Amino acid sequence: MAAIGRRARHAARAIGRSETAAKNQALLAIAAELERRSGHLGAENRKDLDAGAQRGLEAALLERLDLTPARIGTMAESLRQVAALPDPIGGISDMTYRPSGIQVGRMRVPLGVIGIIYESRPNVTADAAALCIKSGNACILRGGSEALNSNKAIADCIHAGLEQAGLPADTVQLIGTADRAAVGALLQLSDCIDVIVPRGGRGLIERIAAESRIPVIKHLDGICHIYIDADADTDQAVRIAVNAKTHRYGVCNAMETLLVAESIAAELLPRLAAAYREHGVELRACAKTRDWIPEALIATEADWDTEYLAPILAIRIVAGLDEAIDHIARHGSGHTDAIITRDFARARRFLREVDSSSVMVNASTRFADGFEYGLGAEIGISTDKLHARGPVGLEGLTTQKFIVLGDGHVRG
Q1: Residue 120 near residue 146, CB atoms below 8 Å
Q2: Cβ count near 127 (within 10 Å)
Q3: What is the full per-residue pLDDT of the chain (412 aa) written as tens digits?
Q4: Does a cis peptide bond (omega within 30 degrees of 0) precede residue 409?
Q5: H-helix or E-strand containing 148?
Q6: Distances, alpha carbon 60 to alpha carbons 56, 142, 246, 373, in Å
Q7: For the whole model, what pTM was predicted?
Q8: At 297, which helix (H) or strand (E)?
Q9: What residues have CB less than 8 Å from 147, skipping those under 6 apart?
Q10: SS3 state at 401
């Protein structure tokens, strides 16, 4: 592991000074290799699927693991999309003259070496590598043991593409072992790795946050809320609330708790209950809500703090905006929260006072996504306040340094 770290640090210097054209050439070459080797990728993925089935992996995990021809095509297209994005590295901003005559500004630069630890999805290998290459970072990838053969096959394509562009293959290194001790060793390489990005379940992320000697960009839970205000457009509210819960269940930006203003509950809740019933969503509700949705289960205190990642929704009636904001402050995870209202002042208050990485007005929480935000792609979503917050795209994998331009200036 120490040798991998040293090679990554050396490669980081090379990729960090590489021209945009070379990085783009590498990404396009990797995309072509993925398509050219599609049959081989499918065969290696089949080994992982067969092994997973024998180990009794859940159907949902096997579905995420499956590298279909369409998904291989999507990986290749994602690489081409990243290649088309503007290169953030070397951008200079905020240049100003100081009274002394010097010019002071900031330049955007890579973070250096990024360690990425993830589970199940082999496409993360290509996506993470693409973002790191374009942002001028070296990366060390540790995928889940259930996808080891698939990840190795994808890594071979990445190395071929890097070499075709004249960039060091060590820019992207895959830890090719299922040994869990490798993760512990990776988390101690503070002299070689600048930041760790975990992608996976809460257990994985809690372990990494607890053990890492390296800064971590993470989110633990996606307990996302929608508050339907007394002044909401009810048709719009139903459409948004149903989409936020039922568009996809097992994602971190799905709504888990719905808050409804008391004055609009009688009109809105029966309509929402009927819509959720059609989608097979189990409802868990406060006592007031059950007056309008009697078939709902009684919600426990734990329900307000649960990320279900399933067709289950908690519903609570609140007196108004203040109580909604208080509920989110107590039970939210800082991921994504939204208000549905036509009242501009209440919308502004919600935007200002709700302390989450994404705060929305009259939109589904499902939009909390790097692609939807125009970032092209994302390496994950951060609910931390330092260094990045929200979807982490290319700019989130960079930092800034001060630059000073003078002409023989000395300080008197």
Answers
A1: yes
A2: 23
A3: 999 999 999 999 999 999 999 999 999 999 999 999 999 999 999 999 999 999 999 887 898 899 999 999 999 999 999 999 999 999 999 999 999 999 999 999 999 999 999 988 899 999 999 999 999 999 999 999 999 999 999 999 999 999 999 999 999 999 998 888 999 999 999 999 999 999 888 888 999 999 999 999 998 899 999 999 999 999 999 999 999 999 999 889 999 999 999 999 999 999 999 999 999 999 999 999 999 999 999 999 999 999 999 999 999 999 999 999 999 999 999 999 999 999 999 999 999 999 999 999 999 999 999 889 988 778 889 999 988 999 999 999 999 999 999 999 999 8
A4: no
A5: helix 148-164
A6: 11, 21, 16, 27
A7: 0.88
A8: strand 297-298
A9: 48, 65, 120, 121, 122
A10: strand
The token pair at 302 is: 């734990």
Instruction: Annotate 44-58 with DSSP letters as a single string.
Output: HHHHHHHHHHHHT--
- Decide: 268 and 238 in contact? Cβ < 8 Å: yes
Both tokens of 225, joined, read 């809320």
Taking the CA atoms of 240, 245, 249 and 254 in sequence, report the sign of the dihedral they define.
positive
Q: Whose CA is closest to 276, among 236, 331, 225, 314?
A: 314
What's the length of the chain? 412
